[in-house]
Amino acid sequence: MVLITFLVVGCTGKEVKETSQKKDMKLITDEEKPYIGFLIDTLKEERWYKDKALFEEQVKSLGGEVKTLAANGLDDVQIKQAELLIGEGVDVLVVVPHDATISAKIVEMAHEAGIKVISYDRLIKDADVDYYISFDNEKVGELQASEILKKTSSGNFAYIGGSESDNNAILFRQGAMKVLQPQIDSGKIKLVYDEYTEEWKPDVAKSNMKNALSKNGNKIDAVIAANDGTAGGVIESLASVGLAGKVPVSGQDAELEGVRRIVKGVQTMTVYKSINQLATESAELAVKVAKSEEVKTEKTINNGKSDIPSIFLEPIAITQDNIRDTIIKDGYLTEEEIYK
Ligand code: GAL
């Protein structure tokens, strides 16, 4: 017994303590395996459960270990969780930031510990993020506005955006306005209401829509809502004045309730983003980065600090006509749960 201990003592007391502590801290991982930390903002919206499950599954199938922590929309909690995973010796951090700018702190801390950071779905701004992977978020907004314009191309329009702390919400709105602006400039469309929705909350979207209706004598002809959660709130308000199904409303995320509303005809469209593709490509990227492999990307995006190497996936507009060829075909949702 003495001999072995001595050998161990060979190195400095402190190193032994550290190594054994790190070993203790990383008990869930095998030293050789890439250890990925996945920091997500929230599990409030349906899609994030899919992101978590699919990303973890993919990392494990690539021989890695993964730990996911959700911050419930709280910045200080997300930063604490980053500290924890950095302390646990993760090889790379994959982050869905709650706040685009506050989360820059996470990149700073990770880089101090020699750990790279991948921004997942939402961009971290004003920091030297190592990689960004998401969908073409401006195109999401373009698809939303284009589908609504197919239903009505004149009158009073309301824009019910996402959470302003989420850079995606800014990009969705930019894309929608790119499509609407010519109609606004020609005077065919009047944008009578235009608000972001705190924390993407459906209830806040519902009360914002109530304001929009009361401020315009219920004369609203179309609504661009940024995701299915906010669309649900909007449609509740429209229903309260007998306008549900009469006013076209957009959405995003292909949530079950959103797709059911499209089948019922009270929601016009949603945007399907293959979370399977996002999680798979992100896991591949994370494992490569954890193994210090250099990954070249075709695209970059400027986040206010630098041009971040980026991967952008294609969003798909969903209406009553293509639900089976897309969402059901991909197994994202089933025929049974949508149409029963
Ligand atoms: C966005 C995301 C959307 C939506 C929203 C609310 O960043 O891209 O898919 O779900 O967050 O969580």
TrEMBL record:
Major subcellular site: other
Compartment(s): Cell envelope
SUPFAM superfamilies xrefs: Periplasmic binding protein-like I
Gene3D superfamilies: 3.40.50.2300
An example Gene Ontology CC term for this record: outer membrane-bounded periplasmic space
A GO molecular function held by the record: carbohydrate binding
Entry keywords, A to Z: Signal
Periplasmic binding protein domain segment(s): 36-293
Any Pfam family hit: Peripla_BP_4
Name of the featured protein: Sugar ABC transporter substrate-binding protein
